[in-house]
Design goal:
The complex is a heterodimer.
Chain A: H1 5-23, H2 28-52, E1 61-69, E2 74-80, H3 82-101, H4 110-129, H5 133-142, H6 144-154, H7 159-188, H8 193-198, H9 203-220, H10 229-236, H11 239-264, H12 266-271, H13 273-292, H14 297-326, H15 329-364, H16 375-378, H17 380-393, H18 400-415, H19 417-441, H20 449-452, H21 459-477, H22 480-497
Antiparallel strand pairs in A: 1-2
Helix pairs in contact in A: 1-2, 1-4, 2-3, 2-4, 3-4, 3-11, 3-15, 3-21, 3-22, 4-5, 4-6, 4-11, 5-7, 6-7, 7-9, 7-10, 9-11, 10-14, 11-14, 11-15, 13-14, 13-19, 14-15, 14-18, 14-19, 15-17, 15-18, 15-21, 15-22, 17-19, 17-21, 18-19, 18-21
Chain B: H1 4-9, H2 11-29, H3 37-55, E1 62-64, E2 69-71, H4 73-99, H5 105-122, H6 127-145, H7 153-184, H8 193-196, H9 199-202, H10 206-224, H11 232-239, H12 242-267, H13 272-295, H14 300-319, H15 324-351, H16 367-370, H17 372-386, H18 392-406, H19 410-436, H20 451-469, H21 472-481
Antiparallel strand pairs in B: 1-2
Classes of the chains: A mainly alpha, B mainly alpha.
């Protein structure tokens, strides 16, 4: 069974969605319990994966490979390293919470909602362990279909605009990647990522391929200036959609950078690293300011996601700069690790923030900050969680938000103190918009009768928020197991950075 | 004198001609109560023909009647899918035809004659056979478009189709005559495609030959529905009874591919450097016009018509690569398009009622609430047409793009990609209407209770998903046919 653990992880949710769908709208409760069962089983399987994975080895593990399309040498190839394992566990963990979070909230066709969620989960896991570029691409794109439906059917009033924008934007990005992959196939006659990584390419070729990949992944991350689809998608998406979008889907972009840009076009990556660094800094500083003026809570968190993901891209490409220009692998390792931890941490923190907003939205049906005030008076437990996640969002030591940001800033300092200075702005701006948000929503007198009628969170919501809180605190206080899990894989990536292809 | 061997090679075709005649007679002599049997019998006839095509397939390409007729793997694949999609059209058409009192022998007979035309066309080894097959297909199609002669649109569409089709046939014939003439200057004149292959090397009239080629490409472009020879497509699609539209969108596209392959590769393969660029230009025009005009359509049939034009652009992408890989990719694309087209029109047919043509995109509003399964099938068809993985349509697109890149036409592949994104919009719009909009009050939108239709349609649409996950064998079959 362990030989096919990765396949099991992918197909369990995807196939599990079918009985959920068949349960039909007539038996909504059966659909809910079935989907929870599937999600829990997937989580358990991912814990098996955690046990099976040997963090001591640097090579890809749990390899599965079957010839899929013989005439094209396309393989159904799966394997994981520490980074993939961490992301997969995070995905299955968030998967449970999303399904639990939607329990009574989704009244309209819950079976379809749950089924779409499960399919999304399976496809995302597939993306995180595909070792064949074409398989990766197919899964990468297939994610759009369930997300399109999730936003379009269960979303807010402007959902159609948002969902079309989301789909076309992200599809637009990835097709350029497809052209690049087809070009690479012409040269290598395979889509195997390891072979592509070893393929010699001239600088000109690398530059073109780099930009094709960059468009695809930058839109997915999203980086400035192609981030505009994200606030719209978040605002209109149902809570669960937002959580998966922010917690897992955005990571697909940075994960793609690690798997494609870094090994396949390292020289172009190093040459254009400054570009990504500048864009990341703009995301961190400018988008931070944009978040400050938002009136809609979801939009605020969406923009803060863009800023936080800027840290991930910064960490990855700072490592490029450090290795290539200064030969400083220790600091590069630190930056890369910081980026990885930030990926996981942002998954939990943003997921939790969106869940909190969802909890309030279910009660009052508004997301505007001005409609709230004094929520802590009626919902003290909720307030406790909200403040905790807000603190993690602005990077307070002891929460997961701190660890990654700190490591990235530290390593960027040794690359260039000015970069570190700009990056460190986030600590101030982030604290600004998050604390101001908390002040306006939670503190003060009860602002209006709607707030006064808000009910304290129930057991189900406490479970969801509690689980997020546990993850955020665990990573913040004791990140060592996560660092250990990814250590060798990250070191491997940093070593690859030094390899010149020209 | 034809030998027995010649007859055996053409056995599926002869069988179908016989069967069509028997059906025609049966229609005349059967009592009205027994007529419904014709439906099942004609489906059985087609399935039997598929069996004959596959079972009698020789291991190597063979010719009959002195090279007039070629029976090779390319012809086999195209015939199997043309017969298969036509059988699906029969299944989907039944409720529609019953509702409109059109269910009669002539529908089945004409359709079977059209299929015989396709079979001759894709097996043509001679310019005369090409023309013969094409006219058999076209004349049957003109009559089929006008099948519902009491309605307003069909006669108009049929006349338009007939006039433009005759013009295109004329062009093709004119081109053929020039090629024939050119082949006679400096050698023996020939209509045989295999002999025409080397004509460029000896002819003393290369200009005449090229002019002939241009006229032939006009004819091919018309039959494919490639821009700028696409004008008939939207009107014919909209005007024809939906089952006939389904047939024109699927079976006849396979035929057009077969014709293009026979004429261009077998006959004019020598001149590939000349026609390559012409096809590329047609491809770009089709991609642009098809995708851009489809966006503004409100009628689903017209939208799908323009989408056909854009898909023919992709098919031409593969053809213009002018090599076995490109042909295999283009044939794969034609098969894929036929399956997707039948599925999309099939859902429309499943939703039509007496007095309600499910034709406007707005008619699909809230389909997910009324019949979620039909909405899901349409969703599969739409995402596949749009080329979203992991559906079949995506892989077909990847293959033609790869063929274009392989033939050093990266620019063409990028044009194809750009218009794929444009095209995404209108396919998504259909999904949006089905899933995100509220149903119209008091609409009759509901799936047909006809069980065979539901089962076959479900299999058809799900095949887009299954073939998307497991397209290797079909691709292998297509590649083997071109000796890869």
């Amino acid at each position: 069974m362990f030989n096919h653990l990765l396949s099991l992880l992918i197909w369990l949710p995807v196939v599990g969605a079918i009985p959920v769908l068949l349960a039909g709208s007539a038996r909504p409760h059966l659909a809910r319990w079935l989907s929870l069962l599937v999600a829990v089983l997937a989580f358990v399987a991912s814990l098996f994966l955690l046990v099976q994975y040997n963090p001591g080895g640097a090579a890809m593990q749990l390899v599965e490979s079957h010839l899929w399309i013989a005439s094209w040498d396309v393989h159904y190839g799966l394997a994981v390293d520490g980074i993939s394992v961490a992301l997969i566990v995070m995905t299955t963990f968030v998967g449970i919470l999303v399904i639990a979070g939607a329990w009574e909230v989704i009244q309209d066709k819950p079976h379809q909602y749950m089924a779409a969620m499960l399919m999304l989960e399976g496809l995302l896991i597939g993306v995180f362990c595909a070792t064949d570029a074409l398989l990766f691409y197919a899964l990468f794109e297939a994610i759009l279909i369930p997300m399109f439906i999730l936003i379009g059917v269960w979303g807010g009033p402007r959902r159609v605009y948002a969902t079309l924008k989301f789909f076309i934007y992200t599809f637009f990005g990835s097709v350029f990647m497809l052209i690049a992959l087809l070009y690479l196939y012409q040269k290598a006659h395979t889509f195997d990522l390891a072979t592509l990584a070893a393929l010699p390419l001239t600088f000109k070729e690398q530059a073109w391929i780099f930009f094709a990949f960059l468009i695809a992944f930058a839109i997915k991350v999203p980086m400035v200036p192609v981030h505009t689809w994200l606030p719209d998608a978040h605002v209109e998406a149902p809570t669960g959609g937002s959580v998966v979008l922010a917690a897992v889907m955005l990571k697909v972009g940075t994960y793609g950078m690690l798997r494609f840009i870094l090994p396949i076009v390292p020289d172009a990556g190093a040459h254009f690293a400054w570009l990504i660094i500048v864009l990341s800094l703009i995301a961190i500083v400018y988008i931070g300011y944009v978040a400050l003026v938002q009136e809609d809570m979801k939009k605020l968190v969406a923009y803060s996601s863009v800023a936080h993901m800027g840290f991930v891209t910064l960490g990855i490409f700072i490592a490029f700069m450090l290795v290539r220009e200064q030969g400083n692998t220790d600091m590069a390792l630190l930056g890369m690790q910081g980026a990885m931890i930030q990926m996981i941490s942002h998954g939990f923190v943003s997921g939790a923030m969106f869940t909190c907003i969802g909890v309030m939205y279910d009660r009052t049906h508004t997301r505007l900050i001005k409609d709230y005030g004094g929520v802590i008076n009626v919902m003290p437990w909720f307030g406790f969680f909200y403040v905790l996640f807000a603190m993690a969002n602005c990077g307070l030591p002891g929460t997961s938000g701190f660890v990654g940001e700190f490591m990235v800033i530290l390593s960027s300092f040794s690359a260039n103190p000015w970069i570190a200075l700009f990056a460190a702005f986030t600590l101030i701006i982030g604290a600004g918009y998050t604390l101001w948000l908390v002040k306006r929503v939670l503190w003060g007198e009860i602002a209006n009768p709607h707030v006064a009628e808000m009910k304290e969170i129930n057991a189900r919501e406490t479970f969801v928020l509690g689980a997020f809180a546990a993850a955020v605190l665990a990573l913040g206080i004791w990140p060592q197991p996560l660092v250990h899990l990814m250590d060798n894989s990250v070191a491997q990536l940093v070593q690859q950075l030094a390899i010149h292809k020209i | 004198m034809p030998t027995l061997n010649d007859i055996l090679i053409l056995l599926p075709e002869f069988y179908l001609v016989g069967a069509a005649c028997v059906l025609l007679l049966a229609d005349a002599f059967l009592r009205p109560a027994q007529r419904p049997w014709l439906h099942w019998i004609s489906i059985a006839v087609l399935l039997m023909a598929i069996y004959l095509v596959i079972a009698g397939q020789p291991p190597q390409a063979v010719t009959a009647f002195g090279g007039m007729f070629v029976r090779d793997d390319v012809a086999e694949i195209l015939k199997v899918f043309a017969l298969g999609t036509t059988a699906m059209v029969f299944v989907y058409a039944r409720p529609y035809l019953i509702d409109r009192k059109l269910l009669g022998g002539e529908f089945y007979t004409l359709m079977i004659f059209a299929v015989i035309g396709i079979m001759l066309l894709v097996s043509a080894g001679n310019l005369v056979t090409v023309y013969l097959g094409l006219e058999l297909l076209s004349l049957s199609s003109y009559a089929l478009v006008a099948l519902n002669r009491d309605a307003k649109l069909p006669p108009e569409a049929a006349i338009k189709y007939f006039v433009l089709g005759a013009l295109a046939s004329g062009m093709l014939l004119y081109g053929m005559s020039m090629v024939y003439g050119a082949s006679g200057m400096g050698g023996t004149p020939s209509l045989d495609l295999a002999q025409l292959h080397g004509v460029m090397s000896y002819t003393t009239a290369p200009t005449l030959l090229l002019f002939g080629l241009i006229f032939m490409i006009v004819g091919i472009g018309f039959k494919l529905g490639a821009a700028p020879f696409h004008m008939w497509i939207p009107d014919v699609y909209q005007g024809a009874p939906t089952p006939v539209t389904t047939f024109i969108a699927s079976g006849s596209k396979l035929a057009a591919f077969g014709m293009a392959y026979r004429l261009l590769d077998a006959g004019m393969g020598d001149l590939s450097q000349h026609w390559q660029l012409m096809l590329a230009v047609l491809a770009v025009a089709s991609l642009a016009i098809g995708n851009l005009v489809a966006i503004v359509q409100t009628n689903l049939k017209r939208m799908l018509a323009y989408s056909t034009i854009s898909h023919m652009g992709y098919l031409l992408l593969g053809l213009s690569a002018a090599g076995p890989e490109g042909y295999a990719a283009a044939m794969f694309y034609a098969i894929c398009y036929a399956l997707m087209g039948v599925a999309a029109f099939g859902v429309m047919l499943a939703l039509t009622r007496a007095g309600f043509e499910c034709e406007e995109i707005a008619d699909l509003k809230g389909l997910n609430q009324k019949s979620p399964w039909m909405a899901f099938l349409m969703l599969l068809a739409m995402f596949s047409l749009a080329g979203v993985p992991p559906l079949f349509g995506f892989w077909a697109k990847v293959l033609v793009l790869e063929a274009a890149i392989h033939a050093d036409m990266l620019w063409l592949a990028i044009v194809g990609i750009v218009f794929a994104i444009v095209g995404l919009y209108y396919y998504l719009y259909v999904v949006k209407v089905m899933y995100f909009d509220k149903p119209v009050e008091g609409s009759v939108l509901q799936a047909q209770p006809d069980r065979p239709l539901r089962v076959v349609l479900s299999l058809n649409a799900l095949s887009l998903l299954v073939l998307g996950l497991y397209w290797g064998p079909l691709l292998g079959w297509c590649r083997r046919a071109f000796g890869l």
